[in-house]
Amino acid sequence: MGVLDGKVVLVTGGGNGIGKECALLAAREGAKVVVNDLGGSLKGDEEGSAGPAEAVAAEIRKAGGEAVSNSDSVTDYNAVAGMVTQALDTYGQLDAIINPAGILRDGMFHKMSESDWKSVIDVHLHGSFNVTRAAIEYFRENERGSFVLFTSTSGLIGNIGQANYAAAKLGIAGLSRVVAMEGAAKKVRSNIIAPFAWTRMIASIPVKDEASAKRVERMKNGMRADQVAQLGVALCADTAAHVSGQIFGVRGNEVILFDQPRPVKSLARLEGWTPETLIDHCFPAMSGSFFSMGATASVFPYDPV
Fold this sequence. Notes:
By secondary structure, the chain is an alpha/beta fold. It has a single domain (8-260), classed as NAD(P)-binding Rossmann-like Domain (Rossmann fold), CATH 3.40.50. It is 45% helix and 13% strand. It contains 11 helices and 8 strands. It has helices at 17-28, 51-62, 77-91, 114-142, 153-156, 163-183, 200-203, 210-222, 225-234, 275-286, 296-299; strands at 8-11, 32-36, 67-70, 96-99, 145-150, 188-196, 247-251, 254-257. An 8-stranded mixed β-sheet has the order 3-2-1-4-5-6-7-8, with helices on both faces. It is globular and about 70 Å long.
């Protein structure tokens, strides 16, 4: 018996990395799986291939599970709607969507092209809209359904050279929160995961100094995609029905619950503020509560557990 017995799960980006591990684990936990992967390059600038998705689906079937493949792009709403239809036509239902599909086009913001900005936003943020919008009415009508979307500490904390990726990933946090709020009455859930895992996306990060080399080595050896998949699959289970609207992280064997923006400090001035009084009084009074501009490594400087 698995936690997803009788369930049908659509996994995007299921041909590699976290998506692949989610698809394989979902099948081992009893789900029938629609494995989607465009089969393109990490930058999303090459023609796709049906091979990666079908290879994972074939691996599931070889192990005794049930799976079909799909090689359409999450950037195409009609194609994503087709993935939902494929699940319904093949298995008669759809219970959850796990959506780690993504690309990277890193670069310093002052050098970033419009096409690199739009491509990353399209795959991550628009792709997350597409997978949630394509299934939300079905989930609401059936009063069940779980979305597992993917954010990043690049958005939650920040990372130099990833303005496009950070903007998309923080946008997904807002999307997931509202989907969860609006879906609560219909038992539709949405959560997001910020993964730490050695995948081809992380492997593409340039190593420019000894400190970054050590950080990459820690990730390669101590943070695996299959560890992230455990949480991704758990969030699809009926026994996790009380979990929605949350932001999680997975770092090796650690599961992290992130806070969400709430007021930290407030100052009032009965006579109102002026630019001068804000500079002289408000900003100095609040400065002790300001957040640093350190990247993810400054928040998680220790080795993964």
